[in-house]
Fold this protein.
Amino acid sequence: MTASDTVAKPESLTRKAIVGSGWSGAATAARQVLSFGALAVLARRLGPDAYGVMGMAALLTNFLQTYRDLGTTTALIQRREINQKLLSGVFWLNLISGGVLALIVIGLAVPASRFFHQPKLTPIMWVLAASFPITAASMVHSALLSRNMRFDSVALSDFGSSLAGYLVAIPCAYAGLGVWSLVFANIANAIGGSGLLWFSCKWRPCAEFDYNSIRSIAGFSLNLSGFATVNYFSRNADNLVVGRILGSMPLGCYQMAYNMMLFPIQNISAVIAQVLFPGFARIQDDDERFRSAYLRGCMLIGLITFPVIAGLGIVAGPLVHAMLGAKWVSIIPLFQILVPVGLIQSVQTTNGQIFTAKGRTDWMFRWGLFASLILVSSFIVGVHWGVTGVAVAYAISYGTLLAYLGFAVPFRLIGLNVGDFLKAFVPQLAITAGMVAGCAALQLTMAETPAIVQLVTSVLAGAVIYSGLMLWLRPPVVYMLLQVTEHLPFPGFSRGLRHLVFRTM
């Protein structure tokens, strides 16, 4: 293990975070383009039923993924000091956990297929089990790269794994393999990602397992795993209810709408949060600096995610018709119902970084239990009105009580006032609302035009309206963006953006 694998070079945290965000953002953008293109092909070729069956399998496999590292890799990033004994111990623990989880998936395959009344689930889950030890073998490498803020390597791994999956899925879909196209893509994704992480991180495990080293992070890790368990259950209880009561076709439609809502969160908010966490861990004892960094990070996230999520809600109709086809039209109202949830979650998804950076995963676990109880209860009530009822129940329960408490609880750890936090977003939300109104008015005039024309025109108009309002009104986030660009290794871009902003004054 080299020093560069465990100790970051003395460099500005701000610069590292910004450069890391740039790498992660570039890889995410490339992955999004790849995903949209592949989704347009696969969704048309496979249809909702294949995605519904895969969704049923994913309910179990994704749940067990939360135990893949037992929270140990996050602990490696959060700890101030680490050593070879701890790293090797975590590696072997993760590998053993991956093997045990694979056996659990194999053992539960038959009961799961009976529960969902779907016999083809059994062999699918047997194959998917192989992904657990494959991904577990690279968790320490991922943690070391993130700890040292080497996000270029992490970004390369993320993009490479996605590319490997789609290179397998598309030929299999055209070969008529149906849902197996998605299964084989999952395995290819795991192999590609793990291989690239091993290539990027030169650390290698030793044949030793020190129990005391593992015990030193047990409290943090177990509470984090506990939260991951209840959080996964609450986030997937809607899928479980829909799949069990309404069947694979409604589940496929609901998951597609839900994934559209999550797409910007997973590929923008989560990426930036991943970059911010190592920096937060280093300033965990400086609340004033933590508050400032957290608020700036959230405002910059909202600068991107608010127009993207709200814009997707406006163009949902032409987007579905142009990309997915007529068989998916039922997801349009579902997605539009979930848009407010997406707007909140795009910022709130960073709150976990407060709990973990502060080492208070016990608070995180207790909060997860409460939120899970509220969400699951709402799904059980909503399913009486079909898949739309589930979506409405989710929007109501999350958009009211959970939205406020989801900020208030972690903010106590850094002394941040919820009211002050929300006020900071008023200008951005107002500008986003203006963009939505302009695009909605434009679409009313294009009702008879082809879906692809509506989609392209609305996206371009939304980009012009949003950027125009930002340059005209210049809310605080614009000046934050200017400060951020000064740290980029591209001075020409920073000068050009500054010139554009102040030229409009």
